Amino acid sequence: MIAIYARQSIEKKDSVSLETQIEYAKKEIISEDYKIYQDAGYSGKNINRPAFSEMMQDIERGNIQKVVVYRLDRISRSIVDFADFIDILESKQISFVSATEKFDTSTPMGRAMLYIVVVFAQLERETIAERVKDNYYARVKKGAWGGGPAAYGFDLVRTTIDGKKATIYQPNDKISIVQQIFETYAKP
Fold it and tell me: Sign (positive/negative) of CA torsion 5, 74, 52, 107?
């Protein structure tokens, strides 16, 4: 049987839907039986996903002869996870096909090209994570809310900071209790 795997982190206008990914993958299948595994709302930063785990169990059981995906990064953007995945497929003589990127994993050059593409996928993931972290810290530095529930004695209020809408902490009527707690704690 052929495994078709599709993953979509979040539904956005510019992202490729699970249905579209599956349709592309089906073009790589002539007349063989196939099973679709799809994870909606899961990041490619690791392989901890329910449908992916189910597919791997079917691979371990010997039920899968080929894995077809829309693109390589649907499996993982982690070099280690992807390399482990390919090693498992190779050990079980299971072929791997990307519907939009043509790689022959049976040759050394094909495997090398595959790993190069995964390196860039991981770089993209790490760059995005770094940008999000930097943006988060810049917002907090300007006084914006850092996330999570408001601390006791504060409310979360929408406002504008530097022309952009943001949420900030604003003291509420319980702030005097917080001040009293700190003053009491500071006494010897």
Answer: positive
Cα–Cα distance measured from residue 78 to residue 7, given in angstroms and rounded to the nearest whole number:
14
Contact (Cβ atoms closer than 8 angstroms) between residue 126 and residue 45: no
Task: Output the six-digit token pair for 23.
Answer: 């349709």
pTM: 0.60
Nearest by Cα to 100 from 139, 61, 78, 74 = 74
Helix axes 108-141, 79-91, angle to 10 degrees: 150
Do residues 38 and 25 touch, judged by C-beta distance below 8 A? no
Which positions are annotated as active-site residues? 17
- β-pair partners for 3: 35, 67
List, edge to edge, every strand of the sheet that includes 95-98. 34-40, 2-8, 66-69, 95-98
- Averages of pLDDT over runs of 10 residues in the chain (188 residues) are 90 76 89 92 86 95 92 81 85 88 70 76 81 86 85 92 87 95 94
Q: Based on the number of CB atoms within 10 Å of its own CB, is 36 exposed (0-12), middle (13-18) or buried (19 or more)?
A: middle
- Based on the number of CB atoms within 10 Å of its own CB, is 177 exposed (0-12), middle (13-18) or buried (19 or more)? exposed
DSSP 162: T
Q: What is the DSSP string of 108-161?
A: HHHHHHHHHHHHHHHHHHHHHHHHHHHHHHHHHHTT---SSSPPTTEEEEEEEE
